[in-house]
Amino acid sequence: MFKVNNNFLKLPGSYLFSTVARKQREYQAAHPEAEIIKLSIGDVTQPLAPAIVERLHEAVSEMGVAETFKGYAPDLGYEFLRSTIAKHDYKSRGVDIAIDEIFVSDGAKCDSANIQEIFDAESKIAVCDPVYPVYVDSNVMAGRTGEYDEKTGLWSNVIYMPCKEENGFAPELPTVVPDVIYLCFPNNPTGATITKEQLQTWVDYANMNNAVIIYDAAYEAYISEDNVPHTIYECDGAKTCAIELRSFSKNAGFTGTRLGFTVIPKELKDADGVSLNALWARRHGTKYNGAPYIIQAAGEAVYSDEGKKQTAEQIAYYMNNAKYIYDGLKSAGYSVSGGVNAPYIWLKTPDNMSSWDFFDYMLDKANIVGTPGSGFGPSGEGYFRLTAFGTYENTVKAIDRIKSL
Ligand SMILES: *Cc1c(COP(=O)(O)O)cnc(C)c1O
Q1: Is the CB of residue 294 less than 8 Å from the CB of residue 56?
Q2: Residue 258: what pLDDT?
Q3: What is the value of pTM for the model shown?
Q4: With bands split at pLDDT 50, 70 and 90, how would you rate the model's confidence at 12?
Q5: Mapping DSSP to helix (H, G, I), strand (E, B) and coil, where does residue 212 land?
Q6: Pocket-testing residue among 127, 138, 183, 188, ligand 1, by greatest number of atoms within 8 A of Cβ
Q7: Whose CA is nearest to atom 2 of ligand 1?
Q8: Which of 128, 132, 136 has most ligand 1 atoms within 8 Å of its beta carbon, as the pocket-test mutant?
Q9: Lowest mean pLDDT among 7-16, 76-85, 289-298, 360-369
């Protein structure tokens, strides 16, 4: 008789965003006249930039002509895209990344969930708390996380690195040495960043302790301040300890078209000298058949002069929303962070309200949907996330409602 993978049954029952959606639906049903504004989910709202759409159309046409038709894409990605990435994302920042160190995929969510497959089942993982839920849940599915404690919301075999107001939302080096360290900067959900010096400390720590860092740089394009690293490979020694995840979702609006990539330097080896690059290539070859040609062609257009200009305008649009949210909440007396190098604003709930109580309060009194910080981990309790991905009009309306509460 067959049985399911028992690890899946350990996952906590209610998924954060489905609970948020259900509460919104129920409220709307009970208050049909309420004009609810959603500042909750991390999805873009601006349409794909014209330069990207134009290249997409061309690429679709190429697929209908015998001479330019493409079948299976190379499973590590087309060279035209990988060389463009190497030049614009790395060479331009003084970092040499070879084409065969770049693995094109359909997004960073898949990559961040799948990358754990190449590590030993007994590996000890460390995550920031609050955390992008994918890192932990994918390790739960792999049976690596031990037991879940309903009361604390913690897994027994996971090292949590609290990121709170007291430490500027920057993780401190763990006291127990992990094997795999997940870092995400600019951070989702807190919107926090760390400086190049701070990241260098992590790289040195990982090299010294034979740990690997999985660095999620999905929000790299939102960095506005100097001294915030755009890639972990700006740090000395990162090539022997770090994997970097990137996505076209947040910088160019590919959430619906799907494109991302992972960088694994050839120098990165485990304790027995096994190359992670070769292992990931093997894994791609077995389990992945490549991102579509038309999407990779569109991805290349993101790096054209027009593409760069147009996507920068979109990011400026979102960051203008972020500033409106940040300044508005501040003037209303809230304690806020984020929103400078990331499209997320992280606010402290007033009067020690729980995250979910504040969620209900915002929904009921201002008809605004945000995301309870506690949904990202125990250290998110007492915090609330708002995103800058809405339209400017809705953002202004929402913040003005909060200000007049
Ligand atoms: C949105 C996001 C991603 C990117 O996901 P895609 O699958 O590329 O759309 C990765 N990591 C974090 C932390 C994110 O918020």
Answers
A1: yes
A2: 98
A3: 0.97
A4: confident
A5: strand
A6: 188
A7: 218
A8: 132
A9: 7-16
List, chain by chain if needed, residues with CB within 6 Å of any ligand 1 atom: 42, 107-109, 112, 132, 184, 188, 216, 218, 247, 249-250, 255, 260
Check pLDDT > 80 for residue 15.
Answer: no
Distance CA 5, CA 142 (A): 9
Within 8 A by CB and 6+ apart from 86, the residues are 97, 98, 99, 102
pLDDT in tens, 248-286: 999 999 999 999 999 999 999 999 999 999 999 999 999
Check pLDDT > 90 for residue 13.
Answer: no
Question: What's the gap in Å between 245 CA and the centre of ligand 1?
Answer: 9
Topology (CATH) of 53-303: Aspartate Aminotransferase; domain 2 (3.40.640)
Identify the residue whose C-alpha is closest to ligand 1 atom 15: 188
Q: Which SS3 state, helix, strand or coil, does residue 159 take?
A: strand
Ligand 1 center–CA 257 separation, angstroms: 13
Domain 13-42+306-403 maps to which CATH number in 3.40.50.720, 3.90.1150.10, 1.10.1200.10, 2.40.50.140? 3.90.1150.10
What are the domain boundaries of the chain?
13-42+306-403, 53-303
Instruction: Please tell me if the domain spanning 13-42+306-403 has the same topology as the one spanning 53-303.
Output: no
262: Cβ contacts below 8 Å, ≥ 6 apart: 102, 103, 105, 108, 111, 115, 243, 244, 245, 246, 280
pLDDT of residue 42: 85
pLDDT tens digits, one per residue of 299-310: 999 999 999 999
Confidence of residue 41 (pLDDT cuts 50, 70, 90): confident
User: Residues of the chain with pLDDT > 90: what percent?
Assistant: 97
Residue 109 CA to ligand 1 centre (angstroms): 5
The helices-and-strands tally (H runs, E runs) of the chain is 12, 15
Flag whether pLDDT at 179 surpasses 80.
Answer: yes
Q: Whose CA is nearest to atom 12 of ligand 1?
A: 218
Question: Cα(257)–Cα(248) distance, rounded to whole angstroms?
Answer: 9
